[in-house]
């Protein structure tokens, strides 16, 4: 009996993984804005002996022996990041974007220091908050004044506020990120008052690599922190880059030994491949992403949905933000769509109180993953139609599921990556 039970448990784990691979990778329209898929080559290289090894410390100065191949690929990844983002110093060891942020907050603020960030309903990531990474290093967050029509930081009001509060750090970027942030506009007041600027590129790193979004270092950021797996379709992980050598020394210490010992080396070969792919196909990929997001937003409005920032062209990123309060709210809408294999997340909108986070007014959509599988204008229309049938015309989502599965069948191979590489 005992043996059977164990065997059954093993089987169940294997079954769950197989089911996940089939459902989420082949049968869904995935519109989660923070996700993506690696290329087949990067995926293959992800599961290697690197996953078992330690390589604490700096490249070529490790605390453990046995790291020569880690040094080789990490050295290449560093060079690729420098070239792709036109930067001088980078640290690839943070295990996630939140950890990269934590290292930045540690290096750039002091206990009791004041940071300006978005509020959560206006798009901040949780790590930007007092209850997140900022709180861990003892910083205090003040929200930027926000222009809801433009879905962006209100520049004039912020300049006034910054002069009054004299914060230590301005944090740009967020988890809702429709438009480039006003870095250039706020750099002058930051310089005047000796305030540092940090840019969280987690969502838009692939768009920056594809040169279709703002270039944060050129526009005045002192440091960029990011995840490596959203619009940049790499392994889950984090990174930091800067052109400021003195700041980089502090960032590096915050990363190691501050927040990581080993840095999960198996990510690095997959990251190398992703960066090489972005170097080659990144501009085309990023262009298609933004065009698709704008197309989908327009198609949704035509079918009766309320999309934010309509008068400003909806979006200049991979994201589209919908107000679904009149359709039962974000929770109901996201669950109904899931029944039809369309995956989105409920999201707070700027006017929602934090207390409504279980059933906020909005949903957030990202087109980067479906674009990666080759979807274009016609498919954006089709997605809008699925959503209309289910959410506005009240069709049974369970009945739409088979249609969604068959629609996905033509889009199961990642594009914008090396094909037919034998390993
Ligand atoms: C996703 C995200 C992060 C980090 O996410 P991880 O899951 O820790 O990699 C950081 N900042 C923003 C704005 C994000 O959206």
Molecular structure report:
- Helix 5 links the parallel strand 5 and strand 6 (about 140-145).
- The protein is about 45% helix and about 15% strand.
- The chain has helices spanning about 1-25, 40-45, 70-85, 95-110, 135, 155-165, 185-195, 205-210, 245-260, 265-300, 330-340, 370, 375-390, 395-410, and strands spanning about 30, 55-60, 60, 90, 115, 140-145, 145, 150-155, 170, 195-200, 225, 240, 305, 320-325, 340-345, 345, 360-365.
- It has about 425 residues and is of the alpha/beta class.
- The mean pLDDT is about 95.
- It has a domain at about 45-275: 3-Layer(aba) Sandwich (Aspartate Aminotransferase, domain 2), CATH 3.40.640.10.
- It is built from 14 helices and 17 strands.
- Pyridoxal-5'-phosphate binds near residues 97, 98, 101, 200 and 227.
The largest beta-sheet arranges its strands as 4-12-11-10-9-5-6
Low-confidence stretches: none
- Based on secondary structure, the structural category is alpha/beta
Per the principal axes of the C-alpha atoms, what is the gross shape?
Answer: globular
Summarize the structure.
The chain is built from 14 helices and 17 strands. The protein is α/β, with parallel strands linked by helices and 423 residues long. The strands form five sheets. Strands 4-12-11-10-9-5-6 form a seven-stranded mixed β-sheet, sandwiched between helices. Strands 13-14-17-16 form a four-stranded antiparallel β-sheet.
């Amino acid at each position: 009996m005992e043996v059977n039970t164990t065997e059954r448990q093993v089987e169940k784990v294997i079954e769950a993984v197989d089911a996940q691979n089939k459902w989420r990778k082949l049968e869904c329209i995935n519109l989660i804005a923070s996700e993506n898929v690696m290329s087949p080559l990067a995926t293959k290289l992800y599961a290697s002996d690197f996953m078992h090894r330690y390589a604490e410390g700096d490249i070529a100065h490790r605390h453990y022996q046995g790291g020569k191949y880690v040094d080789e690929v990490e050295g290449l990844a560093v060079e690729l990041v420098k070239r792709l983002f036109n930067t001088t110093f980078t640290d690839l060891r943070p295990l996630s974007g939140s950890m990269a942020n934590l290292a930045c907050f540690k290096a750039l603020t002091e206990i009791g220091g004041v940071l300006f960030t978005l509020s959560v309903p206006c798009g901040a990531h949780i790590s930007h908050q007092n209850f997140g990474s900022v709180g861990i290093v003892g910083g205090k967050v003040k929200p930027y004044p926000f222009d809801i029509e433009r879905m962006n930081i209100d520049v004039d009001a912020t300049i006034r506020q910054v002069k009054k509060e004299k914060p230590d750090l301005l944090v740009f970027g967020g988890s809702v990120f429709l438009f480039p942030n006003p870095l250039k506009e706020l750099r002058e007041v930051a310089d005047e008052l000796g305030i540092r600027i940090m840019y969280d590129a987690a969502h838009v790193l692939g768009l920056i690599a594809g040169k279709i979004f703002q270039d944060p270092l050129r526009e005045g950021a002192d440091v960029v922190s990011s995840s490596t797996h959203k619009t940049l379709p790499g392994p889950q992980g984090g990174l930091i880059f800067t052109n400021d050598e003195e700041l980089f020394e502090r960032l590096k210490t915050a990363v190691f030994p501050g927040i990581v010992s080993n840095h999960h080396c198996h990510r690095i070969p997959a990251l190398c491949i992703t960066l090489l792919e972005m170097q080659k196909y990144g501009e085309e990929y990023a262009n298609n992403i933004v065009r698709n997001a704008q197309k989908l937003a327009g198609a949704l409005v035509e079918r009766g949905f309320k999309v934010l920032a309509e008068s400003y062209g909806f979006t200049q990123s991979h994201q589209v933000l919908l107000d679904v309060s009149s359709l039962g709210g974000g929770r109901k809408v996201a669950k109904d769509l899931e029944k039809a294999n369309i995956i989105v997340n409920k999201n707070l909108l700027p006017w929602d109180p934090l207390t409504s986070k279980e059933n906020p007014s909005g949903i957030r959509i990202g087109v980067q993953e479906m674009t990666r599988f080759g979807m274009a204008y016609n498919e954006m229309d089709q997605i809008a139609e699925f959503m209309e049938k289910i959410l506005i015309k009240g069709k049974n989502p369970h009945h739409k599921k088979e249609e969604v599965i068959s629609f996905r069948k033509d889009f199961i191979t990642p594009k914008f990556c090396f094909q037919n590489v034998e390993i």
